[in-house]
Amino acid sequence: MTFKSNMVLVLDTETCDLQGNVYDVGYTIANKKGEIFAQYNSLVEEVFTDAKKMMGAFYAKKLFTHYAPMLDRGEISISPWSEIVEKMQSDIADYGVTTLAAYNLGFDRRVMRQTNKLLGNGKPICPKLNILDLWQFACETKLSQKGYAKVARELGWVSAAGNIKTGAEFAYRFCSGDFGFIEDHTALSDAIIETKIMAVCFAMKMKIPYGIINGAPWRIVNNCAKGNDPDVHGSKTRGPFLYLPAGVKTY
Q1: Using CB atoms within 10 A of its CB, is residue 113 exposed (0-12), middle (13-18) or buried (19+)?
Q2: Based on the structure, what is the number of domains in the chain?
Q3: Using 50, 70 and 90 to split pLDDT, how confident is the model at 177?
Q4: What is the pTM of this model?
Q5: Measured distance CA(214)–CA(208) in Å, rounded
Q6: pLDDT tens digits, residue range 102-161?
């Protein structure tokens, strides 16, 4: 099968801490309409089987509530890091992926790099891809609509500091109309909803913020609010923040 250009790999990771140690990697490969052509999900063997690291994970309880049943049902595998990277590289080549995307891409890119530094062979995971932070994309498009601010305040999607929340859970609620949706916080499940958010943003036919990873797009929705608000993402805001010029192709 031949795939058209402009395919997007939508990545999500779950980590033991904010420093790296990725234990769950999930992604979809989709077009801009959100049509998914492939998906992948694996636990990282070197990390997931390290009890000391996993007990310190932010969502450690998911070991029993989510991952054990998923493993029993054969819905997720456990693979060495090298195999996960090889599969990702193979899928990028096979499906003609040109863009790497994630909701809060700065975090996922950083922890993938850190884990690869610890467990990989020293080579980049996937060089020469456009990068697209879906958090930035959503805040510049769908979440900047007056309707979102109205719904968010009416339903209490507001941080303790009074800022409207802009995390993937809330973006998906608004994009899908499922206002009671609760994010799973497992990698593939989250990547799937982020793919749907991406499709809604592309459908708005607005400028696409390739290359921008500033870590605080919530300020766009909140009238350029200053300072930091760790609750505005919906859960813990993750990772250092970075701005790259549009069009930069790197991973």
Answers
A1: middle
A2: 1
A3: very high
A4: 0.88
A5: 15
A6: 999 999 999 999 999 999 998 999 878 999 999 999 999 999 999 999 999 999 999 988
Quick one: CA dihedral 196, 83, 215, 17, positive or negative?
positive
CATH number of 197's domain: 3.30.420.10
Q: Do the domain assignments include residue 146?
A: yes
User: In this model, does residue 237 exceed pLDDT 80?
Assistant: no
In a domain, 239, yes or no: no
Question: Bridge-partner residues for 20, per DSSP?
Answer: 17
- Strand, coil or helix: 141: coil
Q: Among residues 67, 75, 26, 28, which one has the least CA distance to residue 48?
A: 67
Q: Which domain holds residue 11?
A: 7-221
Residue 13, C-beta contacts closer than 8 angstroms, at least 6 positions apart: 22, 24, 25, 26, 107, 108, 111, 112, 187
- Cα 157 to Cα 138, 154, 181: the distances in Å are 16, 8, 12
Measured CA to CA, the distance from residue 114 to residue 79 in angstroms comes to 18
Tokens of 222: 């909140």
Please give the DSSP secondary-structure letter assigned to residue 210.
T
Please provide residue 28's backbone torsions phi and psi, each rounded to the nearest 5 degrees. -115, 160
Q: How is residue 76 written in tokens? A: 């997720």
